Structures are given as structure tokens and as C-alpha cells.
Amino acid sequence: MTETMDAVGRTALLTAAMRALESQRPDRLYTDPYAQELCGDEGPKLLDEMWGATFPPHRRRAMPDSLDVNAIRTRFFDDLLQRVSRGRHTQIVSAASGVDSRPYRLEWAPEVRYYEIDRSSVLDHKRRRLAGARPRVVAHRMIAADLTAPGWERRLEAAGYDATAPSVWLLEGVLPYLHEGEVHRLLQRIRTVTATGSLVAGDLVNAEALTSAQARGQLDVFARWGCPWRFGTDDPEALFERHRFTAEVVQPGDESAHYGRWRDPVSPRSVPGVRRIFLVCAERR
Question: How large is the greatest C-alpha to C-alpha distance in the chain, in angstroms?
Fold first, then answer.
């Protein structure tokens, strides 16, 4: 699999391995019955490597547990997508969707149309692993494209997406891997194919997360895999405001993103030198 899937694609297998473990917990925040099949044999190996580098044996845990972060992030976006898609936002676009199984594992309103954009190697892997499984949406389309390359907008609209109707876009586990210029270009391109009132949901890290000594082991693993974290911002609201989106931002551990799982203090954003993760939902004006 690692020979055919690019470096960022492999992080999708890592995420699936985390979701498979979460699904086995008695206190799980969600159940993903497809995660084990999707992560295959490679996903647990990647998770072991990342875990060993992030939390070396016989050392006190110095940063949040990656499994807790992933569980909270997954549940947060599960809840958000299901909530907004019961209203006007019946078009869901999962950009750089990885091997996410939301179209298959969640219940959706009958009018929901679900689009997934990712590179062909990732989507081909998903098709093979989920052969025989049926999505729970009437319209489910996979668009093979690189978000940093030209042309995916035309392919998306050719698949039935309506740029004049409200939509919700999911950028989960995407933005930290892009260069700053690529982040701005992606948000601007999304703006050109969305109607007023459309939403963009995603996760970001702050600048400290790119250089933190506590996160050095994890950062080194991603760099060794060929997919280093490149982008972080201390002001996600300003990032989205630049493209005329009004953002609401929370951190894991805040009241709306806790789920009884977060074990660490949540420092006010005015406190410097803290590694942060942001969960964002931004509305297009």
C-alpha cells in the first residue's frame, strides 16, 4: 500500500487505525465498523511508529494523547455535519477525504448529497476495501483530484455539485500539511464554488505546534514519512476572515469539544508557548 499511496495518503491509514481502536473502547465516542478494514495491516504499523516517537517508554506524557485528539475531532465533525445537513446544507464536500467512512457509517437525511475529493490512489484503496458496502446517502460521488492542482472544481460540478446552493465543506486533517500559500489558494477556490451561507469546517494547529519540543517526536515521524506539518496559525479567525468567512473556533477540551475525554488543562489563547489544536466552523458571507 505504501508503494501506491503517497505520503499524505498514508496518514489516512493512520487515522483509520486510530478510529478502529476507538471503536473497540467501551467508552467510545463513535463506532466505525469500517475502520479496521480501511486501515489494513499498514495502519497499525504507522500508529505504532507514531505512538513510540510521541510517547517514548518510561517518560511522563508531555502532550495530549493523539487517540483522544482524534476521537474528539472525529465526533465533533460527525455531530456538526449531521446537524447542519438536516437543514439547508444538504451538499457535503469532504475535501482530501482520505479513507473516512462517514457516508457509510452515519445516518443521513434522504436529500443529502455527499462528495469526496482525494487522489486516485486513496479513493481506489477505499473502493477496494469497501467493495460490497453501501453508502447511506442517495447520492455519493468520489472525485479523483489533487486539491493543490487545477481542475477539481469542474470535476466536482460535473459530478452534480451545485455551486449556487448551500454546502458544507470538510477539511479534516488537511491544512497542516499544506504550505501557507496553498492554504490561502484552497480557501479562495472553495469560496468561488460556494453560495452565501455555506460552511467550511476543519482543524488547524497554531505556530507553536510546528516547533514545540514536546511534539518533536511526532513532527519528526511525519517529516520522515514525507508529509511534514507546514502550516499553523495563532489566529484562525483572521485566516478565514481574509477570505470573507466568519469563523467560530474551539479547542479540544472546551465545553463543546470535550465529550468527557479530554484530560488536560485548556489554556486561554492569550497564554503564549502552548501547543494548540483548533476546530473551526466558518460561514461564507
Answer: 56
